[in-house]
């Protein structure tokens, strides 16, 4: 993954330089905007950079460049792919900020979420009205700001491209991704609040749709396709990247669902069983409901989504989900989806180095612990 680690460094450098440019505008308006600068940098430092990596390897899969970004004689202009990868990271940060507001999450990566940071700022300053209202409103605006900046950063990369058809196709992919994520997020909150009016045999279908559009496409498939389109990929190449990316994206989110219930808070940076308190109607919960007898299923439905669940209740629900075999079923689904992804990659018309690195990434994202 040597090229990948170098790409991560380039993306962070591009993010930092872009933020320097944009936050200088904020500082010219008012020193009161300093928290927008500080918190945007906080949420854009570190992280796994999976979307940036998939974007780069989509580009490499088509271009076959095999570049060394630190070589003096590097012949290719990397600005389009680095800017696109960085734009994905800004988009991801905006999505997480908004997601934490929707879920009322207190933490992100082991630190306070954005709305809690703004809430604390308000409380410590002794301003008027409610600190939580200020925190929510300010975090919404920060997410909106990063969302707009992600578009600007993408355009800065695409505008100089000589192949205008490739640039237009890449822009269209990004726009579609943005729409799909928003639609998936709405379907997620709808599922949490309307599940009781849905038939039991609909629960899994609804959870699958949420996984696909809220997470799988934008986490893996769209970044791969975006990179491939920037490189001028043929329809068969882009189709192959999607055939690999969608099942792997589903596996990625299924792993996330398991971590949301069983993850170690010291590793995930989130409280144990956080998805249970938030009432997430995931594939894991759908599988558990299908397996449980009416009594235990009713108790699961009653407790799921109660923000006041104590540790004993969390452990009880975790044991219920484990004992009925739902967690094992999700593990098998993850293995199946990764198998589908690898089968699509085996004969795909992509570069050999990209095939090797994408195979390694499939292992990384499907077996991660945070």
Automatic annotation (TrEMBL):
Cofactor dependency: Mg(2+)
Q: What keywords appear on the UniProt entry?
A: Magnesium, Metal-binding, Transferase
One Pfam family named in its UniProt record: polyprenyl_synt
The entry's family comment says: Belongs to the FPP/GGPP synthase family.
Descriptive protein name: Polyprenyl synthetase family protein
């Amino acid at each position: 993954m040597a090229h990948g680690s170098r790409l991560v460094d380039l993306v962070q450098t591009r993010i930092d330089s872009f933020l320097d440019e944009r936050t200088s505008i904020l500082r010219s308006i008012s020193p009161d905007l300093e928290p927008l600068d500080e918190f945007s940098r906080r949420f854009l430092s570190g992280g796994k950079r999976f979307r940036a990596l998939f974007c780069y390897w989509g580009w490499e899969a088509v271009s076959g460049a095999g570049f060394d970004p630190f070589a003096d004689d590097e012949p290719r202009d990397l600005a389009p792919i680095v800017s696109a990868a960085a734009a994905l990271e800004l988009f991801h940060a905006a999505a997480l900020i908004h997601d934490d507001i929707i879920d009322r999450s207190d933490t992100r990566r082991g630190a306070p979420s954005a709305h809690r940071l703004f809430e604390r700022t308000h409380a410590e300053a002794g301003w008027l009205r409610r600190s939580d209202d200020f925190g929510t409103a300010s975090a919404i605006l920060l997410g909106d700001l990063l969302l707009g900046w992600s578009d600007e950063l993408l355009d800065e990369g695409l505008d100089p491209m000589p192949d205008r058809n490739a640039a237009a196709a890449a822009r269209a992919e990004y726009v579609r991704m943005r729409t799909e994520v928003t639609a998936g997020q709405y379907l997620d909150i709808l599922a949490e609040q309307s599940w009781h009016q849905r038939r039991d045999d609909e629960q899994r279908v609804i959870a699958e749709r949420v996984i696909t559009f809220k997470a799988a496409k934008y986490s893996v498939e769209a970044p791969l396709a975006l990179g491939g389109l920037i490189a001028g990929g043929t329809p068969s190449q882009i189709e192959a990247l999607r055939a690999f990316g969608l099942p792997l994206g589903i596996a990625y989110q299924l792993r996330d669902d398991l971590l949301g219930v069983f993850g170690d808070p010291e590793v995930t940076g989130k409280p144990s069983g956080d998805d249970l308190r938030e009432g997430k109607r995931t594939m894991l919960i759908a599988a558990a409901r299908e397996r449980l007898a009416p009594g235990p299923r009713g108790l699961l439905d009653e407790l799921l989504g109660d923000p006041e669940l104590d540790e004993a209740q969390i452990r009880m629900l975790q044991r219920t989900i484990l004992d009925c075999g739902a967690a094992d079923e999700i593990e098998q689904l993850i293995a199946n989806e990764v198998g589908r992804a690898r089968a699509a990659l085996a004969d795909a018309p992509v570069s050999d180095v990209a095939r090797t690195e994408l195979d390694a990434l499939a292992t990384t994202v499907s077996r991660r612990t945070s």
